[in-house]
Each structure stands twice: as C-alpha cells, then as structure tokens.
Amino acid sequence: MTQDEQKRAAAQAAIQHIPTGCVVGVGTGSTANYFIDELSNIKHKIDGAVASSEATAQRLRGHGIEVIDLNSIDALPVYVDGTDEITEHLAMIKGGGGALTREKIVAAVAKKFICIADQGKLVPVLGKFPLPVEVIPMARGYVAREITRLGGEPVLRQGFITDNGNIILDVHGLQILNPVELETALNQITGVVTNGLFAKRGADVLLLGLDTGTRTIVT
Ligand SMILES: O=C(CO)[C@H](O)[C@H](O)COP(=O)(O)O
C-alpha cells in the first residue's frame, strides 16, 4: 500500500472505535482529513465534532458535520488525530501542520486518544522530525536562545501564523531521551505557548496502516 492508502486504512479502522451518539474530537492534517471523509459516512450516528484547527472545522462543515464548541461540553469520549512521529510507548511529536496547541487542548479533554498513522511514523526514538514549538511573537528571540541552551537549533517557520496568532519555531537536533522531561522543560520557558511533544498525554491507541491491513498498539 502507498503511504496515502495506509493513512486511509488507519482512518477507516478508527471508525470502529467511535461510539454512537457522542461528540468526536477531530485532529488536523492529511490523515485526519481521511478520517473526516470516513466520519461523514456515519455522521447521522454522532452528535457533532470538536475541531483542533480552523482547517478541520471548515472540512467538517463541508461534509455536513456540525462543529461543536469545546466549551459547550463537559466531556469528550474520543479524539482521533494523526502524528509526525510516534513510539511503541505512544509518545509523539505533533504539530507539523502547526495545530499543536489546539490539538493538545482537545487531547487533554478527551477520554481516549486514538492516533492514526502510516507505518513510516513509527520510530524507535523521537527527534528526527523537528519539534514544533508555538511561541508568542514578541518572545521569539528569548525563546530561541533558551532552546539553544537546551541543545536545540530553532528555525522560524517562515510565513506561518497559527490559528492562535502565534509563530512556530521548528527545533532541530534535539536528543529526546526523556520526552516527558523535555516537554515540561520547554513549556516552562516564558513565551512558549506549548510544544509538540505529546508525552505526558500520549495516545491511548495507535492504529497503524501497514502494507497489508492495520496494526493496533494499545498502551
Ligand atoms: O500534528 C499534526 C498537525 O499539527 C498532524 O497530525 C501531523 O502533522 C501529521 O500530519 P499528516 O497526517 O498530514 O502526516
């Protein structure tokens, strides 16, 4: 199967995990887009969706799926999203699409986080993919210097502003031996909104599209 076929297979597998009559959290990116396409086939069985980005909200509406304000609900049974890298322990780097902060908020609320991905996303150690960090614009220089002190090489994502009006620094060269520790350290830098390490709250289930079928990993 091609990479796109693997993404679609993972998205199709995720549909089996969606309870009837619930609001569904929906991620951002090409794999999440496949999931939205699949979700539209069962839209009469769900009570709408919470979107992790403006792009996702637009796509959901385009498929006739109601977009629900996260603040109007007390609980979110399930969140489905893609990833840039994921380990067997289901820690991730996310944010390649720049939606990391809203993704982290939706993931925090969700009872179950289902990650859907092609097999190329499964890695032994996180860090080959540059780690996205969302930063308040006026703190850019300070945050970049602090990240350099931690051993990373921050690169400004040119011409990109997040849905929250902030910038992204993509951090290269980090040795991510302890993802939880690094996630915490980066978030403690003043001016950082959040970073793309999903280690403290990783996925609960990984549905990995393979050459033949899908593989499921559960924490
Ligand atoms: O974190 C994300 C967006 O912020 C995406 O989930 C991640 O970039 C994966 O994207 P794709 O499914 O297109 O490979």
Can you give a write-up of this model?
The chain has helices spanning 3-15, 30-39, 54-62, 100-109, 140-149, 179-187, and strands spanning 24-26, 49-51, 76-81, 85-86, 92-93, 110-118, 131-135, 153-156, 167-172, 192-195, 197-198, 205-209, 214-218. The chain has 219 residues and is of the alpha/beta class. The protein has 2 domains: 3-124 and 200-218, Rossmann fold; 131-196, 2-Layer Sandwich (Alpha-Beta Plaits). The chain has a 6-stranded mixed sheet, with helices on both faces. Strands 8-9-7-10 form a 4-stranded antiparallel sheet. Strands 4-5-11 form a 3-stranded antiparallel sheet, covered by helices on one side. The mean pLDDT is 98. Ribulose-5-phosphate is lined by residues 27-31, 81-84, 94-100, 103. Ribulose-5-phosphate (5RP) binds at residues 27-31, 81-84, 94-100, 103.
Features:
6 helices, binds ribulose-5-phosphate, 219 residues, 2 domains, 28% helix, single chain, 13 strands, alpha/beta, six-stranded mixed sheet, Rossmann fold, Alpha-Beta Plaits
Fold topology:
Elements: H1 3-15, E1 24-26, H2 30-39, E2 49-51, H3 54-62, E3 76-81, E4 85-86, E5 92-93, H4 100-109, E6 110-118, E7 131-135, H5 140-149, E8 153-156, E9 167-172, H6 179-187, E10 192-195, E11 197-198, E12 205-209, E13 214-218
Helix pairs in contact: 1-2
Bound molecules: ribulose-5-phosphate.
Residues 27-31, 81-84, 94-100, 103 line the site of ribulose-5-phosphate (5RP).
Describe the global form: globular
What's the CATH architecture name of the largest domain? 3-Layer(aba) Sandwich
Share of helical residues: 25-40%
Q: Can you tell me the CATH class of the largest domain?
A: Alpha Beta
Radius of gyration, in Å, reads 17 Å
Main beta-sheet strand count, sense and barrel state:
6 strands, mixed
The tally of beta strands, per DSSP, is 13
- The number of helical elements comes to 6
Order of helices and strands: HEHEHEEEHEEHEEHEEEE
What is the CA-CA span between the terminal residues?
26 Å
Strand content: 25-35%
- Give the overall average pLDDT: 98
* Structural domain tally: 2
Counting helices, strands and paired strands, the structural category is alpha/beta
- CATH topology of the largest domain: the name is Rossmann fold
Write out the strand line-up for the largest beta sheet, numbering strands in chain order: 2-1-3-6-12-13
What ligands can be seen in this structure? ribulose-5-phosphate
State the low-pLDDT regions, or none. Answer: none
